[in-house]
Sequence to fold (146 residues):
Amino acid sequence: MSRLLYESSVSYKGYLIIPFVFGKADNYEIYSYKLLAEIGDKSKFHKTENPAGIYGSTISNIIDIAKEHIDQKSDFVSYSDSFKSRYIYRHNLIIVSQQEGKYFYDHYPPELLNNIAAPKLFKSEYECLSWIRQGLNGQYTRLRTR
Fold:
């Protein structure tokens, strides 16, 4: 599998649809997708790969396929957008959330939906994003001494 195309992701009814290039046939790309659910593991589709079992020839095509599957089979529907504060930095997906005046984040690397965020709270979205960016730029790496 190639990297997840977070920059082409779409938030839809409580899910984040994340396309990726599944493979190639005759120099044409075949697209698939993965899902993140707003409610996490409480949804049977959280972190699943292509639960519809149908592939697409373009990113917009696979997004439409995913939306149709969500419309028909979803185990919940949300009309709020928990994924609205999402950012892509160096092909990493960062989702910033706020609860009771504190900010925190989820961090997904380019190749898999495995949240690698540090358990840290911030006073603002800006502080949160700055800290993440510094970490991804290597400013928080520890030096080993001998």
DSSP finds two helices and six strands in the chain. Helices lie at 59-73, 125-136. The mean pLDDT is 92. Strands lie at 10-12, 15-25, 28-37, 86-89, 92-99, 102-108.
